[in-house]
């Protein structure tokens, strides 16, 4: 890319190695939810354990319950020095992926008690079972669950901006969380279908300088692969000057990756969504998701901090991997289907008893 300031080499976390995952047993089937939930189920579950990254044997270690963790509401997130707020948006609810994201992040951290997880899930009315199920499996983690309706209430879906967001929530939610002031404090956005092997605190505490966003670049895709420089120049000449980059664009600049972002809401441009809309409307690509990724990349051109490439999903040595277990997949009509897993890494962070609760 070369169009954003890079974080110095070595400032990212090193990869946490692990032994071979336990052998896959009989494939789990979805368990029907009980007719009612009782907090009494907590008594029958083992305490949450985590893996010490410094332990070469990767043994499971129980959390220290003497620290009496405090549970925070979304509007009252911890702001003590060193705390890291993690946000994630999931369009098709699957608590297994959220549990693996949480436990893998904690397992890889050297300061797990200073990490809070904030999950935005589809509206479920008064049903609070997702929160209680996650708390049953991960009682010592700092987890909050909120409805995506809270974002909808802040962003009028009838407006062009609102319509664009609900068309591409996975790509735009990392930014919308900040522009709607849903969170007023710095946060690390992690895609819900992730296994985190790096130290999340390294991201949460980086110096953003004057930037509002830090992101990983995906250099397998470049601006010139999708649009010509002539088209970019034409848009520059006709669009409001405050909404576009005024210098020449580099056709070889990389597109942004949306799996990991660090966002400082107080520094976000008020017109960022307007800028994204200008670029989204400027051209039409065969794949709408390529179109929104290109639009966001152009709106943030030369105005973000480049995160180290080890936070890009690439191989087993990356600091973030794809969740490779079974998961729910939602159709256009909202129907949930089961997709089989294709790996064992997820089983390092979720045992069979936990699956019975979350399934």
UniProtKB/TrEMBL annotation:
Keywords: Glycosyltransferase, Transferase
The protein's annotated pathway: Glycan metabolism; pectin biosynthesis
InterPro entries hit by this protein: Glycosyltrans_8_dom-fam, Nucleotide-diphossugar_trans
GO molecular function per UniProt: glycosyltransferase activity
Highest taxon above the source species: Eukaryota
Disordered, as annotated region: 1-33
GO CC aspect terms: Golgi apparatus
Name assigned to this protein: Hexosyltransferase
